[in-house]
């Protein structure tokens, strides 16, 4: 009898074996598919409500070809798909839920290896987290970015240009007609955001961790080579099962260190920190906020992509893709760690290292920006840390002291930000509370608050903004995010009042609320928790168990794994 775990279903000779096989046979699978060959689960985040992943059923069919060809038995199953653009109040609220769906669907079913089909932001970390807690041989096929946006002769980037166009509309520089037309010019093919937003960041994370075939991250969704990648991944996962190349063998501390450095070099999203921390937590790999700063903040920016630079993912692919970045960083990465190919990064990139456009991918010695990685700040305003992405910020604001203008909630912000009477100028620091994991709940991407209209009209383009929320990977500005502990649980952020002085000093990694400790203590005693009427359903589970941002915002009870064993039968 086969030694794979699926034999505990299909290999049984008793009544249970009959049940496990017979119902599957209603799909027309021939007898020999149940002979003990590796069963490959294709975990699909396809959904028409997740437009970035809407093409993944086609991709799944191509993966199946590869699996069959290699002698495996592919079975596709859907899990909760998280679409960034439609899901309210924020897709992040459901990342942990989707991870539970992935985990239990994989563990409870007769699969020996897993292919994760991902795309839109949260679909990558949610499936990775769930799969990591089961720890079977697993490979990721990233769905790929959309083709570059094109509008009135110019390249436009997903997300990034939404913020720009919205500002232009606000200032009266763009007509409603052009605004509407720009929508179809931005999203013109299957695939995820083609800026270096969170989806592209996650695809690069996957490849740098060694969890996809080499070169996967940048291939556009509609490029025929995306299908080649899917086909080859289908073949490879069957071999991985035979080699028992589990996720935990690939995702070592060294692999995480590689991912942090690569993320800095590509100018990846701040969301990377939260997701990578959560994935590491599932595998018991020690990773804390300081690691991101120590390992990543001095790495130079090599990739010239929006929002930090000027190009888009299609250009990245044509310039050579992530293997070129890995090659540029090779002196600084653990090149000998094993990847899903069964080979090391060093072996993977051997014959795949030409850069075809040095304006898109810069050389390590002549980078776009010398130090680009995400900086982690601490101080009395964020005892457990907060983050800023210097490559997306304004150099002149990296050291700044200003008067706080406080918004108690996102509703408060919307109600007052454009009020001409709001007492604010460009030297002020905008502070937004109650947008953290517990506070919103779900930690939405609202940290890059749009500037007050009256300041935009004056030509102001950036201001220091601070919150316990996140920002879209496609956004930019001098934005301090992920303040931990968050305001809703009584972090110092909750105590900031209008008129307080705040000091930001990125070079010395400091965020300071210049208010005497005695005054803060007095405010602390007066502070009252905002009343949240959430006492049922998933949201109540969420607010009671979500960890703070610096711990990856996973649920406390999901940290770690339970392996793949299930001893009991269903009937
Ligand atoms: Fe799906 Fe950006 S909205 S990747
Ligand atoms: Mg996003």
Automatic annotation (TrEMBL):
Keywords from the UniProt entry: Iron, Iron-sulfur, Lyase, Metal-binding
Keyword RNA-binding belongs to the record: no
A Pfam family the protein falls into: ILV_EDD_C
Molecular-function annotations in GO: hydro-lyase activity; iron-sulfur cluster binding; metal ion binding
Domain Dihydroxy-acid/6-phosphogluconate dehydratase C-terminal, chain residue ranges per copy: 359-553
Domain (Dihydroxy-acid/6-phosphogluconate dehydratase N-terminal): residue spans on this chain: 37-348
Similarity-based family: Belongs to the IlvD/Edd family.
Name of the protein this chain belongs to: Dihydroxy-acid dehydratase
Species this chain originates from: Chitinophaga agrisoli
């Amino acid at each position: 009898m086969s030694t794979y775990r699926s034999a505990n279903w299909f290999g049984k000779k008793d009544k249970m074996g009959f049940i496990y096989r017979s119902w599957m046979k209603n799909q027309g699978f021939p007898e020999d598919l149940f002979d003990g060959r590796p069963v490959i689960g294709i975990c699909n985040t396809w959904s028409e409500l997740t437009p970035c992943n809407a093409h993944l059923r086609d991709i799944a069919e191509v993966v199946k070809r590869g699996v069959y060809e290699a002698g495996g038995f592919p079975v596709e199953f859907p899990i909760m798909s998280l679409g960034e653009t439609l899901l309210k109040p924020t897709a992040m609220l459901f990342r942990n839920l989707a991870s539970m769906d992935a985990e239990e669907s994989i563990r409870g079913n007769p699969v020996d290896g897993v292919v994760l089909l991902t795309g839109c932001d949260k679909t990558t970390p949610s499936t990775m987290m769930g799969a990591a807690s089961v720890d079977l041989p697993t490979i990721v096929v990233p769905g790929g970015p959309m083709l570059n946006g094109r509008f009135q002769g110019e390249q436009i980037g997903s997300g990034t240009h939404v913020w720009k166009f919205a500002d232009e509309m606000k200032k009266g520089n763009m007509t409603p007609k052009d605004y509407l037309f720009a929508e179809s010019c931005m999203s013109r093919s299957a695939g995820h955001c083609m800026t270096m937003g969170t989806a592209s960041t996650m695809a690069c994370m996957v490849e740098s961790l060694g969890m996809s075939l080499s070169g996967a991250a940048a291939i556009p969704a509609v490029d025929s080579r995306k299908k080649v990648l899917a086909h080859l991944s289908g073949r490879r996962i069957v071999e991985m099962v035979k080699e028992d190349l589990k996720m935990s063998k690939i995702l070592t501390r060294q692999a995480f260190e590689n991912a942090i450095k690569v993320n800095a070099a590509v100018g990846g999203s701040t969301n990377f920190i939260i997701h990578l921390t959560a994935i590491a937590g599932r595998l018991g790999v020690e990773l804390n906020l300081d690691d991101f700063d120590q390992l990543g903040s001095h790495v130079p920016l090599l990739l010239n992509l929006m929002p930090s630079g000027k190009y888009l993912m299609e250009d990245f692919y044509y310039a050579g893709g992530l293997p070129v970045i890995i090659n540029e960083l090779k002196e600084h990465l653990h090149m000998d760690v094993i990847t899903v190919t069964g080979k090391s990064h060093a072996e993977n990139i051997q014959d795949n290292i030409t850069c075809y456009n040095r304006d898109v991918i810069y050389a390590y010695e002549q980078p776009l920006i010398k130090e680009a990685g995400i900086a982690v700040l601490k101080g009395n305003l964020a005892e457990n840390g907060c983050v800023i992405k210097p490559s997306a910020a304004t150099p002149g604001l990296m050291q700044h002291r200003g008067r706080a203008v406080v918004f108690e909630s996102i509703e408060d912000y919307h109600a007052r930000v454009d009020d001409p009477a709001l007492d604010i100028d460009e030297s002020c620091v905008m502070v937004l509370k109650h947008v953290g994991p517990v506070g919103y709940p779900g930690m939405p991407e609202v940290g890059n608050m749009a500037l007050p209209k009256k300041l935009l009209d004056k030509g102001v383009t950036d201001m220091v903004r601070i919150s316990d929320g996140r920002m879209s990977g496609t956004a930019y500005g001098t934005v301090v995010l992920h303040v931990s502990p968050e305001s809703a649980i009584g972090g110092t952020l909750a105590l900031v009042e209008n008129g307080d002085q705040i000091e930001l000093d990125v070079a010395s990694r400091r965020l300071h609320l210049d208010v005497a400790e005695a005054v803060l203590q007095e405010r602390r005693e007066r502070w009252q928790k905002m009343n949240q009427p959430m006492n049922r359903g998933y949201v109540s589970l969420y607010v009671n168990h979500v960890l703070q941002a610096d711990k990856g915002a996973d649920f406390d009870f999901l940290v770690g794994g339970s392996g793949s064993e299930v001893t009991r039968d269903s009937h």
